[in-house]
Amino acid sequence: MENFLIGTAQLFTDPIGILIFVVALIGGLVFGAVPGLSLLTLAAVLLPFTAYLSSTHAIMLYGVIYVSGVYGGAVTAILFNIPGSVENAPTAFDGYPMTRQGQSGKAIGYAVTCSAFGGTLAAIAMMAFTGPVADFAIRNFGPVEIFALVFFGLAVVAGIGTRSISKGWLSLLIGLLLGSIGSDPVGGIPRFNFGTLYLHGGVHFIPLILGFFAVAEVFVQGLKLAKGEYETPKVSVSYPTFYEFWKMKFVVVRSALIGFFCGVLPGIGATLAAFMSYNEAVRWSKNRERFGKGEPEGVVAPETANNAATGAAMIPLLALGLPGGALTAMMIGVFNLHDMDVGPLIMIEAHDLVWVLFASMFWASLAILLVGVVEAKGIVNLLRIPFPILAPAILIFATIGAFALRGNILDVYSMFVAGVVGFLMRKGDYSIPALVMGVILGQIGEDTFSRSMVLLDYNVFALFTMPISAVLVSAGLITIAMNIIRHRELFGSYYADFKDENA
Amino acid sequence: MKPFLKKTLLALFASAATGFGVVASTSVTFAGSGPDGYPNRPITVICCYGKGGGSDQAVDAIVGPAAKIMNAKINKINITGGGGLNCLPEFLQAPADGYTLLQHIDTLPSRYVEGRIDINPVTDVESLVIMNVAPTMLFINGEDERFMTDGMPDWEKVVAYAQQGEGNLTVSNINIPMELVSMAVVENHFGFKAKQVLTGKSAERFGAVIGGQLDVLMEQPGDVSKYVEAGQLKPVLALWPTRFENFPDTKALGSDYGLDWEPLLRFRGMFTRQGTPPEIVEYLADVFAQAYQSEEHQDFVKRKSLDIVDSFRSRADTTKIIEDSVGVYVEAFRELGLPIREGL
To answer: Is the Cβ pair B81, A200 closer than 8 Å?
Structure first.
């Protein structure tokens, strides 16, 4: 507690520090919200300039950008179906349908509050348990356990966003197939690349997300406009009530734990946190059938988890020097620029600096609540922009976002192809969330599965000989079995209806 | 028009004008310090690996001083994916005018020999300099008593454990020919077969040994120096003809175990297109040589422990290393029974 107070005092008694804190907070919110200008873009642009800042200011800047940027991406996901970054993609699954139903204010309200809650909780945990948590995660979670976790997550995905389980499974399998384009994760053997180097690196999931969500949405709304059926979404600034928040308590706590846990795993970070917590929200919800159609729990879960993961990602970074994602990898660069190496010695060598970072991330999480409430009231007015102006702007931002990712024109093509496919899939009631999760979790899952198999001498049943993987894989199998039983019941009733109608 | 809409359109127009201004300002021509005023517009360096990684840091460290020497702007773009191969189409499509440079590593010759790419690193690219050369070592977990004698890492104990059965020893490694061939050399020399778990993600690669899930890590010492300093990893074998001054207690494959071979190197270099005017090629090579020696860059070299061996190679030496590497990999692949490009 004393360290935290000292860190807070250092932060708020320094005018330059306060200025950097505010600029980083707003910069993260803005860059996180615009697809072409992700928080990584901001972080990369600022990297050389951090050499001119003091080490404390430089590190604090990145901590605050990380916290606010992860939340910023939720706004465009909710309002326009354009996730600002990949960890906000699940937020769009239900956030955007809420907007179409005139509940944009509530959706943003949930996102703001839960982001703040998740981030604050993780910051507290980060301050309290950095050493032991990092040690536990690194000793107990290898490729076998991470694969089991992903398998558990995939098992529930197929039921999201479609009325048909079979179409859900088909969507998931297409996602897994798309994720396998490029080269295999262990041997690097090229596959499905049709002899072109452009496909050697595979199809990245960010252009796919932009295509399936943003571009497909422009097509869907454009078609409605052409048919004269387009309705401008109602602008709503009503915030969720305390009672509505209270009803979410279990979702929030569960998602914060999932987010924290995924964030701690080296190399995994906020993306898996958001998708896993969304899956678990579906699994435990009484309103499963409402997911993908505007269920508030579908906003609460990923937004709590992805912000919880930001604080948690600092634990392996600071305690072990292992980054959880691209931004934390860049933070290593910032430490290096200031002649410091993250790792076990950082807590001793740069004790004060670390506590300023902790304090700044804690206060940034709380500040999101204040800034976010004000922002939520104002930003929903963007929905008043007429569609003929909004649609080209969305396409331009999405195109920039796809190309800026890695400077590869293939990503722009992929995005537009995904847009057309997404449009047709939505018409046919296939599940876009299942497909996207298939691509993302499939890539992580295949990589960890391949390494697990090397470790387990290619014996799949050995997954059941390790306690954590045994529990997770068993739970995943039970979920699949229950899905099949439910589907058979559903299919049985359809079949009975069909027989009755044709009798 | 509604006031809100008016403000929105005004804001959009202002944003577009600002964007245009930014683009226009970066497109302004200027006179550089090279032949015939080269460069008179910004140079692009294509970095084939991700932001924040070793290659990215190496590029950042050298383009800063190089831009000052040239009196020019150098933009870096990261085109990632495909194990560093995804960037090559962009590079090959650029005109051979010295305005598009490539940063690449030893995978350029090794993947060519493998037949994975058709770009001949000897005839299709002009080598400028190598600014980063790193030897490879094997590390064990700093608390792994199985492989220690009196608290010091003991390679003989690792070998004894590995020889108890095929796949007994687990190695955390990366799927790049340099590392795979180096590990195969070790296995052949000591007569064991290890189980290699491969991943390109350095956090997971290091974490697997620090967390005690795998036995041995193959890595360049500069990349894991902080873990070594903290005692989480300990070097157990240098894949080098002699012991390193920085690690005097760590046995070397050559001097301690009698292996006579040419060690493969992790190198990071700068390249330009074949067909670039020779005077520009020479000028660029000279600029990067000066940039390497700059105080700013030397700080980076020391911080990253890149001075464990001489980390710089001139244009002539780089060209020779690339040419030699093709032959070295052909020989190594042949010895190991790995597939080789037809005609080599």
So the answer is: yes
